[in-house]
Amino acid sequence: MATKVIVIANQKGGVGKTTTSVNLAACLAASGQRVLLVDLDPQANATSGVGLEKTAGGSAYGPLLGEGLLAEKIKPTAFERLDAIPSEVDLCGVEIELPRLENHLQRFQLSLRPVCETGRYDLALVDCPPSLGILTLNAFVAAQKLLVPLQCEYYALEGISMIMRVLTQLQTSGANPSLELLGVVMTMFDGRTRLSQQVVSEVRQHFGDRVFETVIPRTTRLAEAPSFGKPIIHYDPYSTGSAAYEVLAQELLQRLNGTAPGKTATG
Asked: Mind listing the pLDDT tens digit for each residue in 67-92?
């Protein structure tokens, strides 16, 4: 069976995008899925978040430019069933170099396809830069599903409207007609504040059952885990952050298997 590709994106930084990529990948792997985490963000936070080094020539940069195979960049992590394609700073050059090339929006899709066709992985999760630049658009074209982390703060809905516009454009232009919104994940939730509760309520009103039931809390342990190169379930398995991502992983699998709520209007 071919690998299901999920892109995790938000053009706004600091919304828990990489935290969600790393921890979902680890929880899905722990639940028995064979997972490939692809770090397409030149900041390489997902790479260090799973305990891998940033090494020169180790990223998807070469394969995106047609030099070498993406499969050669795959590295095992210390966690069972979880592999990763690391990032490093050379990916910054892609934003300048890719637009000059033929099929510039399909480069990642073409590189990733042979990896997906091996059947080695059940899921590939792609962590994107906090922008809607060429790397993020390449990830959108390669994916079947889009997952958007949203921080529980004012202006949360403003950020997602641009992503939804891009999603629609890619569908209607034929660049990726099959790309669907898998869901919106509310992150950095602080149950003590009225603001967090208001934002969740507003986003649910807008997106209906496209918003995941599971809400990710703002916790110190979640913030600490990346500095130890570990996902939260391996750093502090009994924390509230760990429990939240484990439940989110199960909810995500239910959606992928078609047992989640149906689609609702997004506007």
From this structure: 999 999 999 999 999 999 999 999 98
Q: Is residue 245 part of a domain?
A: yes
Q: Is residue 10 part of a domain?
A: yes
pTM, whole model, 2 decimals?
0.93
Report how many domains make up the chain: 1
Domain membership of residue 188 (yes or no) is no
In 3D space, the residue among 24, 31, 16 whose CA is nearest the CA of residue 248 turns out to be 24
Q: What is the CATH number of the domain that holds 102?
A: 3.40.50.300
Give the structural domain span for 107.
Answer: 4-147+218-256
Burial 152-169 (b: 16+ CB within 10 A, else e): bbeebeebbeebeebbee
* pLDDT tens column, 208-249: 999 999 999 999 999 999 999 999 999 999 999 999 999 999
CA-to-CA distance for 128 and 125, rounded, in angstroms? 10
Q: Ramachandran region of residue 242, left (φ > 0), alpha (ψ -120 to 50) or beta?
A: alpha
In a domain, 248, yes or no: yes
